[in-house]
Amino acid sequence: NLEKKIIKSLEKNQINIDHTLDLHGLTQIEAKKRVKDFILYSFKNKKRNLVIITGKGNDNKGVLKIKTPDWLKAQEISPLIIGFTIMPKSSGGEGAIFVRVKNKSKFLEN
User: What are the distances in angstroms from CA 11 to CA 8, 63, 88?
Assistant: First the structure.
């Protein structure tokens, strides 16, 4: 759901990450709230290129890894998000998610 151009830039390490959230050690309830707060804070503060570190969990089936994409699609925050994708292997791979947040200035014009 992200433009190929953004994904290619991400793979080449050409995107500066504005803000990172590490969910390691959090419960599912804590992590869900942190993700929501993180996206809202980032949007308000014009931080558009984000990384959420979920970790992979046991056998690459961690609860936070599986649930985080669902939380990003939630009605409360999805309107603020352009899209998201798994980070390239060189930058965390399946244990991290890149999120592109909408431009606050343009969003508020609509």
Answer: 5, 25, 6
Judge residue 58's burial from the number of C-beta atoms within 10 Å of its C-beta, 0-12 exposed, 13-18 middle, 19 or more buried: exposed
Model-level pTM? 0.90
- pLDDT tens digits, the chain, 110 residues: what are they? 677 888 888 888 889 999 999 999 999 999 999 999 999 999 999 999 999 999 887 777 789 999 999 999 999 999 999 999 998 887 778 889 999 999 888 776 55
DSSP state of 1: -
CA–CA separation, 53 and 36 (whole Å): 14
For residue 46, count CB atoms less than 10 angstroms from its CB and return exposed for 0-12, middle for 13-18, buried for 19 or more. exposed
SS3 19: strand
